[in-house]
Amino acid sequence: MKKTFGFITGNKPLEEEMMYAAKHKFDHIEIDLIKDDSKLESFDRKRIHELKKLSFNNHVSISLHLPYTMNLIRKNIISKNKLISLIKHTFDLAADLNATHITSHIGSFSKKIMWSSAREEHLKRAINSIHLIADIADSHNIKFALENLIPLPSHSAYHFIGDNINDFSAIFSETGSEFIGLCLDLGHANLNEGGIEYIKNLSDNIFCVHYHDNTGKKDQHLQVGDGNIPWRKIMTELKNVKFNGPYISECFNSEPNFTREKLLEII
User: Fold this and answer.
1) Nearest-CA neighbor of 138 among 172, 171, 81, 177?
2) Distance between CA atoms of 218 and 225, rounded to whole angstroms?
3) What is the pLDDT of residue 114?
4) Which run of H or E residues covers position 165?
5) Nearest to 123 by CA among 154, 163, 151, 161
6) Is pLDDT at 116 greater than 70 in this prediction?
């Protein structure tokens, strides 16, 4: 089966990004909803219609990436209600655009506040939010992919939920929804257990892959091959579990068509 490739949108207008995808024969674009040109409020009926037409005519599928500031670890009921309302709005937009899925970070919690809960309590709150999202995803028939994040130093003021395989094993075990899965970020995984371990442990849950490189020390979003990620081994593992995409480029220092070519050369 043919592998599908895409890229996350940058600072150009979405319409230009779509035409770039068509010109270079990409299969997919992931719309970053934190960019000025693609905030939720920018999508009126006319724009949605035009984007759907571009998507259909050029055979380029669409997914959405929620803002990185989203935090599913909500304790305050008012904040949590606002969060769920925003996510519902995003699912409505995804349905209007015939999107394949929505990607999101799980969120962060403070470790510096003396009354901060234990990590397990934050994970439990995240799972409670994900249960609610699973119901919304089911009603829209659109998948929701949780992205693995980078581990932060122990002295950091905050830490992420979703920076290790055990968090995701607990999430997928507790939710048990076919609509909740993993956005495997290979760059982030290289800073912790490694992409191969994620694939071996969570292969049934992978909805999409973000690819970019780093030296194993920080989140650099380098061109494929400019870091130390073992690309051939990882792509072999993904082939073995029959994952064919979308592979979404997040190599911020290189044009998406060059990153795809580089990945295909290596594998």
Assistant:
1) 177
2) 15
3) 44
4) helix 165-175
5) 161
6) no
**Residues 64/29, Cβ–Cβ less than 8 Å:** no
Token pair for 119: 């990590």
Residue percentage of the chain with pLDDT more than 90: 84
Residue 36: DSSP 8-state? G
Per-residue pLDDT tens for 197-234?
Answer: 999 999 999 999 999 999 999 999 999 999 999 999 99
CA 78/CA 160 separation, integer angstroms: 22
Exposed, middle or buried by CB within 10 Å (0-12, 13-18, 19+), for 265?
exposed
Six-digit token pair at 153? 């130093």
Residue 237: its pLDDT value, please?
A: 97
Domain spans in the chain, listed from the N-terminal domain onward? 5-266
DSSP, residue by residue, 89-137? HHHHHHHHTT-SEEEE--EEEESSSTTPPPHHHHHHHHHHHHHHHHHHH
Return d(Cα 115, Cα 130) in angstroms, integer: 24
Strand partners, 8: 30
Considering the entire predicted model, what is its pTM? Answer: 0.95
CATH number for domain 5-266, candidates 3.20.20.150, 3.30.1360.60, 3.40.50.720, 3.50.50.60: 3.20.20.150
Banded model confidence at residue 266, pLDDT cuts 50, 70, 90: confident
Find tokens 């220092």 and name the residue.
253
CB atoms within 10 A of CB 166: 11
Q: Between the CA of residue 132 and those of 126, 135, 162, 215, what are the distances in Å? A: 10, 5, 18, 37
